[in-house]
Structures are given as C-alpha cells and as structure tokens.
Amino acid sequence: MMVGAHPRLAVPLSTTGLWYRYGRLLDHYDQLGTAANVELLVQDLLQEERIRLWDVKLSRDSVLKGLTPCSYPTVIARFHSLYAQSKGKDLWGNIDIATLDDMDMAASWFPRARFIHIVRDGRDVALSHETMPYGTSNVAECALRWTQRLHTNLKMGAILGPNRYLVVRYEDLVLDTKSALRRMCEFLDLSYSAQMLEYTSMVKQKIPDDRRWLWPALDQPPVESKVYRWKREMSETKRIVFENTADKMLSKLGYETYSRIPKRASAYLLELWYFLGQRGRFRRFAAKLGLQRPSRLERQWQAKKKP
Predict the structure, then answer these.
(1) What is the Cα–Cα distance from 167 to 170, expressed in whole angstroms?
(2) pLDDT grade, residue 149 (50/70/90)?
(3) N or C terminus: fewer CB in 10 A for the chain?
(4) Does residue 160 contact residue 107 with C-beta atoms inside 8 Å?
C-alpha cells in the first residue's frame, strides 16, 4: 500500500500466485504461438477473481490492443501497465507472496525487475498464524517453514545481487517508516515522496469489503503495537520451541534471541504435542466433527463490525 501510494508507481491487489500458475499452463495455450491463443489466455485471465478484484476494470480490447503472438511476460506487463495508466502513473509493481517460492521465474520473465522482500520476526509471524484460518498449524511448524523459506529466499536474493534484491525488516518499516521508505525508493531509483505515507486514504478504493478482515489495521498509520508482540504475548515455552529451530535465522536477520536456549520439560512436551498435530491434523479432525469455527481474526473483525 505504501509503495503503491508513490506518485509514479502503481501496485494492484495481490493476485496470490495467479501469474505463476498460468506460467505453468502455457502448453495449454500453445506457448502463445498464435494470436488466437493470446486472445484465449487474456480472456481466461480477465475471468479470474483476483483480476476482477482490482480497483480498475480492464477490457478485453484494451488488453489485446497491439498484442500479436507474444511472450507471456508481455501479457503480464500489459495488465499491469494498463493498471498503472489508469492511475496516471508510469511504473508498476506486483505484490504476491507466491514470489517467495518463484522468484527465479519472475526474475527470468523480467530481467530488469527489482525485488523488495519484507521479512518479519518469525515469532510474531507464528503469533499471527494462530489468528488466521490458513497458514501453519503450530509454532514449531511455523519456525521450520519460516526458516526454510528464508534460507532459500536469501540465497536467491544473493544470486540476483544487491542491485536487484533488497531485504527490509517489517519492524523498521513500522518504527522508522520514513527511513525505511527512503531506502526502498533509493533502491528503486525513485525520489522519496511523502504521499507514500498517505496510503490509508486508498484502502476503501483498493481493498474489497469482503477482504478487509484480513488486514484490520490497514486503514491506520503504522501500528507500533504490531511489532515484537512475542515479547508481550508469547509464553517462554513457545519461544523456546520456536528458537530451537529458528535461532540462527533470527540472529542472521538481526533479531534478539536467547544467548543460550533454556531447557524446559514443558518445551519438550509442547514439541511432542506439535509433532502429533503437524500439518493441521487436529484442525482437519475438528472440521470433520463439525467443531471448526471462524478464525480469531475473522471473529475479531465480525465483532468490530457489529453496531
């Protein structure tokens, strides 16, 4: 939202893996070898819910105008450039958590693209996952996936190099917003603009009402209480379980960790419990019994919406 508020740069709502999914289906469109196949791909993309949720309606004719048999990245660029034009901007960006797994694909599609990777203290990530209807099923699983994904991402970033890959800590973005945004703008060869701090005015226009519960604080300035929640809300036992797996990655990213992880019987027992319930086993069992209820995040949003 902050980057998309820059006067030159437009960023539509996340497409959550859509471009990568279609990138693996190009044989279905004969690798876009004919104008008819390009047209079929564009028609299918325009029917995708994630595209229809954008706050700009794209027409088939505007997307296809001037497109002949072309490369898939050209089609992706056309969708985004039309979005940017509708906002009176000359540059575009894309936000998609799937890029964490497919950064190599995006880098090959757009050899001049630059990647900004926002990382967050994994213990706060684990606490956040406990409120969501999706994600990891427990703290131990979160620690493992968080560490593995970051290990891969940082290696991909190292291959891209510092001119194309930048890591920004979520905590810095919240606690020292202007400095973090200036650093991002410098990386993107853009002048810093104070308009980036006015992103809250875009929320109603950009985020569909039925998706707002996912980001309840998005219409507020950076909320400092969202930072280092684990210090206030995570039990020592859960912290030990998380750091048993992720302490090296936490340290690598500059986060505080135990100098020596304590040994607690409660932590061993909790790890055993998490092992038994790994991959959402308990959640799936509850769903079969009809005992599943809305996530805490959904319940909090519903309570907020009540008169």
Answers:
(1) 10
(2) very high
(3) C
(4) yes
Distance of CA 53 to the CA centre of its chain: 17
Cα–Cα distance, 47 to 27 (Å, whole number): 19
How far apart are the C-alpha atoms of 171 and 121, rounded to whole Å?
A: 8
Q: In angstroms, rounded to a whole number, what is the distance separating the alpha carbons of residues 173 and 223?
A: 10
Distance of CA 199 to the CA centre of its chain: 17
Decide if 181 contacts 160 (C-beta within 8 A): no
Residues 6 or more apart whose Cβ sits within 8 Å of residue 207:
13, 215, 218
Written as one string, the DSSP assignment of 36-49 is: HHHHHHHHHHHT-H
Select from 213, 222, 224, 229 the least CA-distant residue to 2.
222
The helices-and-strands tally (H runs, E runs) of the chain is 16, 4
- pTM (2 d.p.): 0.87
- As a whole number of angstroms, the distance between CA 227 and CA 172 comes to 9
Distance CA(230)–CA(139), nearest Å, equals 12
- Give the closest residue to 87 by CA, choosing from 210, 191, 3: 3
pLDDT of 262-275, one tens digit each? Answer: 999 999 898 887 77
- Residues near 163 by Cβ (< 8 Å), separated by ≥ 6? 114
**Cα 240 from Cα 228, distance rounded (Å):** 16
How far apart (Å, rounded) are the C-alpha atoms in residues 280 and 189?
43
Fold for the domain defined by 114-307: Rossmann fold (3.40.50)
What's the pLDDT tens digit per position in 189-242?
Answer: 999 999 999 999 999 999 888 888 778 888 999 989 989 999 999 999 999 999
Contact 103, 149 (CB under 8 A): no
